[in-house]
Write a structure and sequence with these properties.
Layout: H1 2-8, E1 15-18, E2 33-39, E3 46-52, E4 74-79, E5 82-91, E6 103-108, E7 118-124, E8 130-136, E9 150-151, E10 158-162, E11 172-184, E12 187-194, E13 198-202, E14 205-209, E15 218-222, H2 223-232, E16 243-246, E17 250-256, H3 258-267, E18 276-279, E19 290-300, E20 305-306, H4 308-312, E21 317-319
Parallel strand pairs: 1-18, 2-19, 9-20, 16-21
Antiparallel strand pairs: 2-3, 3-6, 4-5, 4-7, 5-6, 7-8, 10-15, 11-12, 11-16, 11-17, 13-14, 17-19
Amino acid sequence: MKALKTIFLILTGLVFISCEEDFNPYGDYFDRYAFTCILKSDQNYQTATLLRSYRPDGYDPITYTEDPSVIGADIRIWYNDSVFVFRDTSVARVDTSRYKSPFSYYYNNKFRVGNRKTIELEVLLPNGKRLRSTSVTPGQINYNNQSDVIIPAGGKSSVQIIWNTLDNGTFFAPRMAIRYKQNINGAIVEKTKDVPYKYVNQGGSQVPVYPAPSASATIVYDLSAITKILEEISAGDPNKQNYSVYQKIIFSVAALDLPTSRYISSTGGTIDDLTVSVDVADYTNIEGGFGLFGSYSKSDYMRLRFMQNYIESFGYNFILEN
């Protein structure tokens, strides 16, 4: 599982595609190929998947258990006057309920993307067919000076972060997380916990709501949601001194390039640190095939901090940072 998390990390990381063929069981069948890759600005490890369509024996595609991954393709990406060749590899699957073979994907660990750069893709399939795509990476995110810098913020019941807009249609994916240490039987374990921007009542229970990608260039967190998530890190443990919370809070925004933003907008899909789900029947920017070729640009907001008395009110230790 740890290896998979290393591979899949992102605000958009590795992309999966549903490649189940829409077909008439008595009609002609044609091979289709789906390529997916979202290039990252915050790490050098870039990943991609390549799948083929398949035709199950009956009407239910779940009965098809042969891995549709395509290996042996020549995948090249042109960026900044250089060409980067991807290699194929595989890891053990966590979920083997349908496919038993290792999960296959492609990677290159030699580059990361910058702002407003052209990226070009060419895939030479084992059968000689080619897939192509191109995009432009997003611009730079800059945070507005009106953004809050401390939690709680001067008696306010919310925390607001504001950043600049980019090209029309650009979507943004914000994320806030708390860093803390937990003493577990004498062992100090570093942990993080994502913060919802609010809670809603569903069936008598409080359910967290996390930010989804949108065109909005601001996010407002309810202070009550931050308070509740801080309470949850020690739920069931009467010894609150086992927990130490860092002063600095993780906050970042990933700007999605236009193809990825259009996918989110047109399909109502989601993108998070692990996966993107793409329905090839709904969206593609791949010439000669299906899927998604895109990128994101991530920027951290470094000014957001907890007040010491707020953290200590939970019974936690406070870790002061410069």
